[in-house]
Amino acid sequence: MGCFLAGDLGGTKAILALYVTTGHGYALVREQRFACSDYDDFSGVIAEFLRGSEPHPQTAAFGVAGPVAGGRARMTNLGWLLDQEVLQEQFQLAEVILLNDLVAVAQAVSILPPEDLLVVNAGTVAPQGSRAVIAPGTGLGEAYLCWNGTDYTPFPSEGGHADFAPTSELEQGLLSFLRAAHDHVSYELVCSGKGIPNIYRYLTQGAGMRVPPAFQEALAAAPDFNPVLLGQALAKEGEVARLTLEIFFSVLAAEAGNMALKFLSTGGLYLGGGMLPRLLSVFDAKRFMERFAGKGRMAGILSSIPVRIITTDNAGLNGAALIAFRALEKHQTR
Fold it and tell me: Which CATH number do you get for residue 258?
């Protein structure tokens, strides 16, 4: 019986899980969540999770929120530097793999059960067709997968930092508003957790739209802006909040369509990230697909692409687990 470790490391929290191999794959032994601010480095998180653990893992894979290069990743907001070789030696593992968190989510796409996917557009899945993943969260993550002859290989992307391209007069005004404060306006500044407050500020400060004082006070006092805005969007006087979310989804749909064209993702376009499942009460699938497919003569191709929302928040962990499992198989067959 083999054992391996997987993790999903974000800017504020880390999720670690221990697995054992079975006759049909692998099974979860235990899972634990950690607040990153409680630790000086990632090694401390791993050490606490493994303390007294039996059996000891042989391999590990960790999805990290940020770019990974040369087996190293720097978590700038935490001041952490992760190094595959250091972790491998420190915890006596046969192999440690660091990968971008969106690559981990992309890796999980092939193994997610139907109950973890919400169909936005059924489309027609092309066997061995490329796949794309776009995930608004704190930032805007993007990744894609290509068929390698036997399976799908995920690849990272920093496409969320590409130039934001408005497609309406209202969005043009948003771009001008954001340019006054930023040298570079990316899609991430509009379609992400930090993008929603940007849109709201444009509507109230740049476009002069009015909201009830009680709404303004509630948003100003809220530790997390977006849940409060969602509540206001469902209220009778929440026109500005509703328009904020309409613009957010419109821009997200347009960029998702851009991705689908760039990677010709006939195998499917997947919407991930922690935000979308919480916004489903105001999500309009028909309107989303109109913006997604609104690319002139490419509309027919885009309308046939399957689009799904990933509804589980463990997709990144699941993807890292699959990668750690394959690493373990590789070492066991040597």
Answer: 3.40.367.20
